[in-house]
Write a structure and sequence with these properties.
Distance between the termini: 19 Å
Strand content: 15-25%
Order of helices and strands: HEHEHEHEHEEHHEH
Largest sheet: 7 strands, mixed
Radius of gyration: 18 Å
Shape: globular
Helix content: 40-55%
Number of strands: 7
Number of helices: 8
Structural class: alpha/beta
């Protein structure tokens, strides 16, 4: 499962999500993660988080940011950024990550919080300009791109990433959970597996059940507020 596992119940308030991520499952381990990167079309006159905010404030409602769809992590990250910055950017939802990247390159939209592995090839060619990384640390393959959090102020601690985790049905014996966690961690630490995942832009991130539970709870608290404040609903 991934981020939307914990946000879907808030995006489907009528119960269509069909499950409760807390009551019906127990966390086992986080498997991997990949942060979002704030990128812009090269024609946008902003090379830092502060410059992008200043540009948006000078042209309220003129900049458009894309997402892979209403309620997706791309969308919620953009809304959180807008709220913290106090700026007005127009949200343009697409059906999937590839179309939004294509239209950003074409200049139909100007801004995107894109998953690192999907935007990196276009950063390398110069088709997109990276502004900031939404992870806790700069990326090894984008060493000169600062984090959003480094802008300080309301962005202190800013973090948004796609993470993948493993859960089991509620009631799974703790010794079984421990065995699955150990096996998953062993696999993720295997050099060949690690290299294969990193080649796809996914950072292996094995964790304890308690650490995954904390991550899930943190994300539920953060994104449920964004969903409530924006009125976001899944397509």
């Amino acid at each position: 499962m991934a981020n939307n596992f914990v946000t879907n119940p808030f995006l489907y308030p009528d119960g269509r999500a069909g499950y409760d991520p807390v009551k019906e499952f127990v966390p086992v381990t986080q498997l991997g993660r990949v942060p979002f990167v704030l990128v812009v079309h090269p024609g946008v006159a902003a090379r830092s988080t502060q410059e992008l905010i200043a540009l948006a404030r000078a042209q309220p409602g003129k900049l458009a940011y894309g997402s892979a769809g209403v309620g997706t992590p791309h969308h919620l990250t953009g809304e959180l950024f807008k709220s913290l910055a106090g700026i007005d950017m127009v949200h343009v939802p697409f059906r999937g990550a590839q179309p939004v990247v294509t239209d950003l390159i074409g200049g139909q939209i100007q801004v995107l919080f894109g998953v690192a592995n999907s935007v990196l090839p276009h950063i390398k060619t110069g088709a997109l300009r990276p502004v900031a990384v939404a992870g806790e640390q700069p990326l090894s393959y984008l060493p000169n791109v600062p984090t959003v959090a480094s802008a300080g102020g309301p962005f202190k601690g800013f973090r948004s990433e796609v993470w993948i985790g493993l859960v089991a049905p509620a009631g799974t014996p703790s010794d079984v959970v421990a065995k699955i966690e150990e096996a998953a961690g062993r696999a993720l630490r295997d050099p060949a597996v690690k290299a294969a995942l990193e080649a796809q832009g996914l950072e292996p991130a094995p964790s304890t059940p308690a650490a995954l539970q904390a991550l899930m709870q943190e994300d539920m608290a953060r994104w449920s507020k964004v969903i409530k404040d924006t009125g976001a609903r899944a397509d």
